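Format notes (please read before filing issues)

Several people have asked whether sequences and structure tokens are stored in separate files. They are not. Every record keeps both together, in the order shown below: the sequence lines, then the token lines. Line labels are part of the format and must not be stripped during preprocessing.
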Amino acid sequence: MIVAEADGSACPVRQRHQPEDVSIAMSRVKITAGPYTFFGRFEEEAAPKTVAVFKKLLPYREKIIHVRWSGEGCWIPLGDLDLGLSYENHTSYPAPGQFILYPGGISETEILLAYGGVHFASKLGQLAGNHFLTITEGLENLVPLGKATLWKGAQDILFEMVD
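Then the structure lines:
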């Protein structure tokens, strides 16, 4: 944008840089899983409908168990729950620290957290889920959480918004 100075000369106006996007700051989420605490951000631009639906569930408390077919991941089975979602920002290969939500269809509705290599699948074959949440702090505890879930069984998990 160009504005005129008092003497009539042109002067470009600089956009004020904000240190952190407000929508990202408002999307900070705390995840307590087993004995570990993680912080993350919602992927509001890439998966707005999935994020909006999940936010309505907060605070969300459940059990997380180890995946059966997908590799190094943990999941929350949600059965026949219909959240009214379709695919957005979907992937079959979430990276460690990414949560995906499978909206249901050929397999049951579920939430999956990758802690290592994952190829998202069910007994019916490859699936894709909506990447809606990414862990940004505490990544060093992903593998210990995954191993605890594998060898010790279901772990409590709690998702809650933080300031």
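For reference, the curators noted about this record: The CA atoms of residues 58 and 160 lie 6 Å apart. The longest strand covers residues 110-118.
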